[in-house]
Q: What sequence folds into this?
């Protein structure tokens, strides 16, 4: 069920971490749906492969943890058109045992997974607040709730990024109801950061693009896992009352 919003598609989508894996698949899926896409990443060669000759994908080389570099990248995006969609996808997953982790290496991961997320969001908001319109989609994970071994920096930084989404909603939802801010968990992928028998990034990107192009203020503060909305937490009394009354809130789906 396509929910593509023409107002989103009339502008530019910026996808961070677009040089490979899920970011590459998202950039290509959005372009296939008619969007102009700024594909941002650290490796120019990989970004050229992402674009694959498409005139709808513009490679922009930048490191989200280098804030001056990122500001320059956003100025390049401005030349393409108004920014209507940001997908914060860039992340590091170094897989280090805690005794191999140093304060410096730990903070390097935090600088990308949390600092880069905030920096890109803040720069996007400078543009979106002027029109009062846009969608910021943060690629999230359950790693903060269920950390794997040798993943301390990744789990902490990605968990903090989920808190950042909630903080953004608290600050902005009332003032800018047409700037949608939400989380999406793509699941375990068959990528370099994922697992061999995981979900194909192209399949996951189809869900992510569907959510990214779906502009509905009611989506602000929601979290989707793969293609299904995760219900918000409810207290014990509310859950008992729902069961007694036979109430069931339908969950939104992306497929």
A:
């Amino acid at each position: 069920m396509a929910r593509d919003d023409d107002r989103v598609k009339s502008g530019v989508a910026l996808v961070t971490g677009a040089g490979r894996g899920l970011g590459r698949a998202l950039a290509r899926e959005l372009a296939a749906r008619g969007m102009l896409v700024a594909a941002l990443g650290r490796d120019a060669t990989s970004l050229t492969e992402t674009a694959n000759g498409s005139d709808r994908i513009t490679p922009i080389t930048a490191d989200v943890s280098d804030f001056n570099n990122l500001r320059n990248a956003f100025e390049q995006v401005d030349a393409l058109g108004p920014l209507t969609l940001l997908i914060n996808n860039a992340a590091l997953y170094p897989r280090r045992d805690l005794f191999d982790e140093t304060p410096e290496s730990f903070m390097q991961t935090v600088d990308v997974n949390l600092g880069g997320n905030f920096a890109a969001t803040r720069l996007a908001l400078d543009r979106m607040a002027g029109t009062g319109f846009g969608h910021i989609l943060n690629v999230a994970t359950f790693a903060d709730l269920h950390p794997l071994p040798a993943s301390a920096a990744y789990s902490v930084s990605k968990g903090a990024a989920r808190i950042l989404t909630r903080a953004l909603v608290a600050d902005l939802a009332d003032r800018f109801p047409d700037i949608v801010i939400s989380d999406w968990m793509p699941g375990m992928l068959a990528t370099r950061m994922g697992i061999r028998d995981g979900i194909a990034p192209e399949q996951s990107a189809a869900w992510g693009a569907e959510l990214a192009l779906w502009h509905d203020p009611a989506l602000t503060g929601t979290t989707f896992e793969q293609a299904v909305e995760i219900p918000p937490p409810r207290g014990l009394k509310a859950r008992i009352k729902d069961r007694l009354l036979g109430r069931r809130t339908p969950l939104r789906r992306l497929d």
Q: What stands out?
A: The beta strands are 12-16, 36-41, 57-61, 83-88, 134-139, 179-185, 223-225, 228-230. Residues 103-131 form the longest helix (29 residues).
